[in-house]
Design a protein that fits this description.
By secondary structure, the protein is of the alpha/beta class. The protein folds into two domains: about 1-310, ABC transporter type 1, transmembrane domain (ABC transporter transmembrane region fold, Up-down Bundle); about 330-415 and about 490-574, P-loop containing nucleotide triphosphate hydrolases (Rossmann fold, 3-Layer(aba) Sandwich), CATH 3.40.50. About 65% of the residues lie in helices and about 10% in strands. The protein is built from 21 helices and twelve strands. Strands 6-9-10-3-11-12 form a six-stranded mixed beta sheet. It has a four-stranded antiparallel beta sheet with strand order 2-1-4-5, with no helix packed on it. The mean pLDDT is about 90. The protein binds adenosine-5'-diphosphate and magnesium ion. Adenosine-5'-diphosphate binds near residues 371 and 374.
């Protein structure tokens, strides 16, 4: 928690300090009031001193007003501080997530990141507010009220002094046992979130496979798990309330019993007994408030840890700090590159890759699914880090560039690409803020997107739904290509980016690329031989290794896999 608190901006620290001062003020007023009541009873009413009664009554009203004002101010400042705190936490988490590499995200999981930014931050925010309002106020109350009670009657104070340890031991026991239960509960929450996310993102697939019933059943099971975990955790906490009540009433009975006797024997004034009872109530209630506050802190501790986990996750592809030179040209070299998603050499998906690509070349990459085509090209813009060996772009190791410099020049159309909510124009501009209208149209023409965009009634102003739901798969792919082209990069990588585009359009895209991007290095991953057969060089990947490199004609002669794929696709066409 201390680490998170360091995120609290200076302004909110002052506000938090104010909350503490207001809380102390409120508590001071509240603990002084019973004393005044005792005086009214003992001095004013007992001795029928009207002016004293009125004067003290006036003081009482004034104190009540002050207490109210302080209370309101404390509530207000603590809310402001805790909301500010939550904002800073979310900001820190979001910014950190932006620095994450693909493998960081693989490790933490998107749905878990979302839960952490929403649920967990809310928990911590509540805990912070509770601490400010309750956990600071209650101990002051406990101390002041105890002092006042003692000043009224030592002997009678013995009663609650006996009760407090019993209560404390009980509360400690409950909290200690509740902690692991709450941790478990939060884990099940995570699972629920992941389920909801996955299902809703993939709802179309669920429907297409008519798996609604199966999904419902599984969701019910997960929801059951959450409920059971919640019940399990709360079962302990619900003991708190009744036990507290029992202790308070026990205390009151004992005090009335002993106090009553004292009054009868003339050792105590009736007014003192009244205020003593109020103090005892204040003491025990604040003790239970401390317990409730602890309860909150227990719950939020798990959230604090989960937030810290994200903040402490080190982006494993750190940005190069030194001022770098720009990318010289679009040449790419792989030097004995091995790569494993887990980062160890035992289960490499790519091993000992050596490949030279000249600037301006067009290179086709072909291979079965799972042959690590995507893995290979993701190393070029350094979306993943090589496990061994070196990837050079423009003659320099990719690790020597800043991310922004490198990725500015290496535009990649990912296999699983997304568009964002907004107009088509906004989505295209996302690739390059400064692009002029002519540039946008040129890029769209090259990607064969211009025609279908202008066919929409709103043209470039057409609003795309979340993830680009209202365009077809092939249209989406073409928009993604256009977006990448707008960056005017030195290297363009298309990872199976025309798979949903018909062959005629596909070949038009390639023609446009040859015409307009002749100086740009182009890497094309494709399933169709027709998409890559004109390439300067074709790389055949097999199980993470290069099987052959050559032109279409060379490969037809020398590479058996290539020939087989070609024959089978030709037959398909015929
Ligand atoms: N994010 C990931 N984490 C762990 N393993 C992965 C990840 N992405 C892909 N893989 C594994 O790496 C191998 C190569 O995958 P990929 O490069 O996507 O193949 P291709 O693009 O040729 O179909 C596969 O065995 C796949 O299971
Ligand atoms: Mg792939």
């Amino acid at each position: 928690m201390r680490k998170l608190l360091s995120l609290l901006p200076q302004k909110h620290r002052w506000i938090s300090l104010l909350t503490i001062l207001f809380a102390i003020g409120e508590v001071l007023m509240e603990t002084m009031m019973p004393k005044v009541i005792a005086d009214i009873l003992n001095q004013g009413i007992e001795k029928q001193d009207m002016s004293y009664t009125l004067l003290s009554g006036g003081r009482l009203v004034l104190m009540a007003i002050f207490s109210l004002v302080f209370g309101v101010l404390a509530a207000q400042t603590s809310s402001v501080a805790s909301m500010g705190f939550a904002k800073e936490l979310r900001k820190a988490l979001f910014h950190r997530a932006q620095d994450f590499s693909f493998s960081n995200i693989d490790r933490l999981g998107t749905s878990s990141l979302i839960t952490r930014m929403t649920n967990d931050v809310s928990h911590v925010q509540m805990a912070f507010m509770t601490t400010m309002r309750v956990m600071l106020r209650a101990p002051f109350m406990l101390i002041f009220a105890t002092i006042m009670a003692f000043s009224i009657n030592h002997t009678l104070s013995g009663v609650f002094l006996c009760i407090i340890p019993v209560l404390s031991v009980f509360l400690f026991y409950v909290l200690k046992n509740a902690r692991p239960r709450f941790k478990k509960m939060l884990k099940t929450f995570d699972k629920l979130n992941a389920r909801i996310q996955e299902n809703l993102i993939g709802i179309r697939v669920v429907k297409a496979f008519a798996r609604d019933d199966w999904e419902n059943e599984h969701f019910d099971n997960t929801a059951d798990e959450v409920r059971n975990a919640q019940i399990h955790a709360e079962r302990l906490m619900i003991l708190n309330g009744p036990f507290m009540q029992l202790m308070i009433y026990l205390c009151i009975i004992l005090i009335l019993w002993f106090g009553g006797k004292m009054i009868v024997f003339g050792n105590m004034l009736p007014g003192d007994l009244t205020s003593f009872l109020i103090y005892v109530n204040q003491i025990l209630v604040s003790l239970s408030m401390v317990a409730a506050g602890f309860n909150f802190l227990v719950i939020s501790r798990a959230s604090v840890n989960r937030i810290n986990e994200v903040l402490e996750e080190i982006p494993d592809i750190p940005d190069s700090v030194e001022e770098d030179s720009s990318v010289q040209d679009g040449s790419i070299q792989f030097r004995d590159v091995s790569f494993s998603y887990a980062g160890n050499m035992d289960n490499c998906v790519l091993s000992h890759i050596n490949l030279d690509i000249q600037s301006g070349e067009t290179v086709g990459i072909i291979g079965g699914t799972g042959s690590a085509k995507s893995s290979l090209v993701q190393l070029i813009p350094r979306l993943y880090e090589v496990t061994n060996g070196q990837v050079l772009v423009g003659g320099k190791d990719v690790r020597e560039y800043r991310h922004s410099t490198l990725r500015e020049q290496v535009a990649m159309v990912l296999q699983k690409n997304v568009l964002f909510t907004g107009t088509i124009l906004e989505n295209l501009r996302w690739g390059n803020q400064e692009a002029t209208e002519e540039e946008i149209i040129a890029a769209c023409k090259a990607a064969q997107a211009h025609d279908f965009i202008t066919d929409f009634p709103n043209g470039y102003q057409t609003v795309l739904g979340q993830g680009g739901v209202n365009v077809s798969g092939g249209q989406k792919q073409r928009l993604c290509i256009a977006r990448a082209l707008l960056k005017k990069p030195k290297i363009v990588i298309l990872d199976d980016s025309t798979s949903a585009v018909d062959t005629a359009t596909d070949s038009k895209i390639r023609e446009a690329f040859q015409r307009e991007l002749s100086n740009t290095t182009t890497l094309i991953i494709a399933q169709r031989i027709s998409s890559i057969m004109d390439a300067d060089k074709i790389v055949v990947l097999e199980q993470g290794q290069i099987n052959a490199v050559g032109t279409h004609d060379q490969l037809l002669e020398t590479c058996e896999i290539y020939r087989e794929v070609y024959e089978s696709q030709k037959k398909g066409v015929a």
